[in-house]
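Lay summary

Proteins are chains of building blocks that fold into shapes. Our project writes down both the chain and a compact code for its shape. Here are two examples, one after the other.
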Amino acid sequence: MSSLTYIRKGSVDERLYQKNIAAAASSESTLVVLPTGLGKTVIALLVIDNLLASGSGKILFMAPTRPLVEQHFSFLKEKLVLPEGDIVMVTGETSPERRNEFWQQARIYVATPQVVQNDMMAGICDISRFSLLIFDECHRARGDYSYVPISKKYSDKNPGGLVLGMTASPGSDLSAVEEICNALAIKHIEVRTEDDPDVEPYVQDTVLKWVDVELSPELAAIASALRMMLAERIEKLKNLQVLPMESQGSVRDLLQVSRELSLRLSSGVRNRALFDSMRIQSEAMKIAHAVDMAETQSVYALRRFWQKLISDAGSSSSRAASFIVNDRNFQAVTTLIDTARSEHPKVSRLREIIQQQLRNMPQSRIMVFTQFRDTAEMVQKNLQEVPGVRPVKLIGQGRRGEDRGLKQAEQKEVVNEFSSGRANVLISTSVGEEGLDITSTDAVIFYEPVPSEIRLIQRRGRTGRLRAGKVFVLVTRGTKDEGFYYSSKRKERMMKFSLLGLNQKLREGSAIIPPTRRQKSLYEF
């Protein structure tokens, strides 16, 4: 590995594991799996410096969102000593005329993959002129995502070109990881965890604590009544022979029923039994969601969902909603929901944890992750009543009914409030897991566990970067919370073993999965 030729002197720390990984990634196409906060972008910087020093061609650094692209662009501008105009940012906000000019002149490009794909198709971005493609958050490189056709075109036009894929977690499923490696033409994997000897000196202690919560009698009664309604739908689906008799009626089973019914419909089947099955499956999914709201979320979120169900039934926009509202047990359940006097016990535990953290460390930054926007709104309103707590809410851009979401500029303002200290608690949906430059926190609280090891790692990585951190996971006893918690932990343990095994298979040349016929057609442009 060369000396730091183009990197501004003193602008990066000397970390052995980063140098070692960058050295490997500078010689062959590499997947880098590194926990959040341990400097994947610095590794990319070191690889870029090596490529620049060798006199190779252009470099393309891609990230899934514009805020993340802006973050990487600023980082490279700050760290690299290059003439003005050698580093450019290309996003959907850049006009086609400017993009055409940019693609001809610069040496390093930081861009969103959708723009790159569009400009390749338009003929203004010649991918063969690049010597290095960097794919940030490369676990997205599956199916139809833009990373996949870009990499395919690149490997066709420039077989000797380097690829650097970076992620905190590609997932525990070996076939899915193989798909990512195949999509990006990866030949080598560099994986590190907090326990590796060359990483351990740079890792801050992070304490993970499972916080048991007992469901209140009120919510237990609501959940029980909802489960009775759900059981009736499950029994009907079994009688219609679309759900196995041994099934417990899990959401996974119901989703499988939906897929099978959709296949029947697309094959031309049209009969009363099929349409009844589709409606009943939809009813079951809605009621199962209500059960989850009662057991793991909040009375506020459950009421919002129940009101929407009534509204949909009244407007005839959903046959399933109409049948639920006309159910003989519907009014009794509605009364239970409307007369519930207390919130989910998770809310009081959340307040206790935050108050204790602020008593111990008054300058703390705390991040709360929630699955649903309604829960995020409820948590924000509740925390506003707590002395010393200054909460802000971070949600995605998409519209959810009357909730229009936050534009990217609004998201950045919320993050700035948190980073500057004007707010000390950031309540976020999944939008806060990746793609936004959020300052390191002293504590992360999961309002509910997530079944995905990728999301577990991303959320947990928001703390323990600069100093010791804490992670609290609120788990309602006897609910799907427990299953999700164990599932994500098990998958995380499996991930490193899978990656080490896959690395060996890549060496042996036996881990290549051919693209599907549908994927091949997408790549032809």
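And here is the second example, written the same way.
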Amino acid sequence: MIGLIWLGSCAYYNTFYNARQYYAQGLAELEKSSDGAITANVRKYFDTAIEKSNKVLLNYPESRWNDDAAYLIAMSQYYKTDYIAAKKSFEYFFATFPASELRSRAEIWYGRCLWKMGEKENALYQLRKSSQKEKKPLLKAEIYFAMADLFMAGNDLDSALYYYRHTVSTAQDNPLAAEAQYHIAEINLKRNNIDQAITDLKRIVDYSPTEELIDKMQVLLARIYRESGRFDEARELINAKLNDIANESIWGELELQLGLLYLAENDYKSAESRFSQVAEKYPNTPIAGEAHYLLGQLYLEHFKNLEKAQSSFEAVRRADRNSKYALDAQSKATDIKRYFTLQSKYREVYKNVQPFLEKIEGGVDIAAVDVDIEEVPEKLKKAIQLFEEEKAKIADTVSVFKNYYQVLYEIGEMNYFEFNNIDSALVYFERIHRQDYFNPIRDKALYAVYYLMRDIGQNDAAEAYLDTMKTRFQESPYLQYIQGQEVRLPGDNIQARQLFLTAEQDLDFQPRTAMDKYQQVIRQYPNSRYAEKSMLAIAWLYQHRFYDLDKSIEWYEKFQAEYPESEYGDYAGGELAKLNQIVEWINKSAEDSLQEGEQAAIPDDESSTSKPVSGDSE
């Protein structure tokens, strides 16, 4: 009988042990990603951990590891970003195991889960309540740290700073205090409190930091010196660390900081050389992805080499598919490709418009046909035929000029908005508004020049262009818009871009707000290029920030349906194919798990009689 009990104990412990191993592998795989992307492997490990934990609960209801198994299920669902399921699992855990030693830690992650679901007030209420009743200093510090993280994610720096300081004072000589101290330094850097940020950073060594945190500290210190203009101190620190083999793990990040230092000093050739070296020496890493992106920016903004810029931007995703720069780099590469297409199109439309320009400028009236009613019917018929032919030529002329002006306008927009070539943009807009011939967008071009001048601070010039609009285009919707009247400018990229840029500013700290603004662009400016970009950005957000597989697929498919001819089509198609492969794998794994039996082995270094300690990492 004792033997049967022991065998049963071994069986359910082996099942739980395997669940815990798969959970640990999921965490390890998640940490490899530069931005916590949920890959197929991550899902596989957490799904298997959930499956095996469920077997413990279902097959061994009296197991001493049942609370661990229930906790593991909720945590695996949380890390998979299946927050609705995780919330339910945490609540099941609280109801079923109210006295579990894991309850306090589960409450912390339950609060984080509520925040991820957008229930911010409930999340903070839950964490505050937990902090008030928790007696153990380290667990109380973890609660403070969680609250600080949530405020940091919402860009509420005052509240984040308050709770990070509470974490430091409560955790004392624990690595968690060192981590909180690091974030305190980051906040002061964001606020441009440079001296305080340096002081805060140097205090980290007082709180038992991990080796990884010490490395991060060195990189952040170099960055602080650079961003505060203390270039000599930054260079001295970076070179000292690069010459010490003990810092080999952060050499790539330090070299990147050196390139950024050259950039800050306007030494563009040295910056180009350093970023190129980083991309070559550390391939297929987040550092290489960032180096390629910085190279693209250099070629675009300083060297004005669009071919090299396009190549560098396209290399970002090859180096790091999950790079935080991936979407922006792809957008810039596509914009450059479109610019080249527009240039080719311009050469073609100019060839078509040139003969008309020569005719018009030569004073030939192509619409005039002299018809004498006294002439014989045959001659009258011929004259009418000639008249109709000339009318057709006029229609062709209008169409040719419309294409010509539209291409000029789009090239002007791209020079200003995408490439920051203000002088070139001005040339194109001026060329449009100064030509009268069959020109339907003179007022739009004048508005673009007015907006450009206001944007660069030349208000007197802007007012002069506004006076021209008032004199020549009193009924223009663009004039009415400037004068504050209620009017919508359909397909207007200028206004759509302003809203789009505010969304991009919220992308890192407030992704939900960014998504709302992207949807606003789509609603208000459906015919603008930024509606197209916004729809792609929403799909990307669901994929890389919210990890919502179904929603991401839905928006990529919607993008393909709305913009079948988009220059971003290849990118969207590639991402959609990748996500559909994940869905296919998940479905196949679910089918396989129903058919496979339990295959567990007793590990040599684990005892079946001692309860394991569940750990988790942020």
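What can we say about the second shape? Residues 1-100 form a domain with the Serine Threonine Protein Phosphatase 5, Tetratricopeptide repeat fold (CATH 1.25.40).
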